[in-house]
Amino acid sequence: QVQLVESGGGLVQAGGSLRLSCVASGRTFSSTRMGWFHQASGKEREFVAAINWSGRITEYAESVKGRFTNSRDNAKNTMYLQMNSLKPEDTAVYFCYAFSYDSWGQGTQVTVSS
Q1: What is the rounded CA–CA span in Å between residue 69 and residue 50?
Q2: Least enclosed by CB within 10 Å: which of 38, 43, 72, 80?
Q3: CA-to-CA distance for 81 and 71, rounded, in angstroms?
């Protein structure tokens, strides 16, 4: 198993920015593909972004392309999600996920006001 802890969520106005962090411990972080998912109230959890072990390959949901950037620092066992041009529809709990270990963090709330 790997333990994941997200941080960086909060309340921001539409058009603003936030940077989420996900710190991993317990297993080899650098060997696993990592991802971000979000879950809005009353809805299912959805894919947001993913990044391969080296950080060179990323993929994004269509709804966030051009606005969000997924990155990682393997030396710090940390993954980031830079969120720009935020919209009210981005409001959700954001979770990080380690694909190789099927492990989730506890989530961090992002609220975007209009």
Answers
A1: 10
A2: 43
A3: 7
90 secondary structure, DSSP code: G
Q: Which residues of 34-56 are buried (b: 16+ CB within 10 A; e: fewer)?
A: bbbbbeeeeeeeeebbbbebeee
Residue holding tokens 């051009």?
66
Is residue 55 within 8 Å of residue 35, measured between CB atoms?
A: no
Cβ(77)–Cβ(23) under 8 Å? yes
Q: Which amino acid is at 35?
A: G
pLDDT tens string 49-78: 999 999 999 999 999 999 999 999 999 999
Distance CA 90, CA 75 (A): 29
Which DSSP category does 95 fall into?
A: E
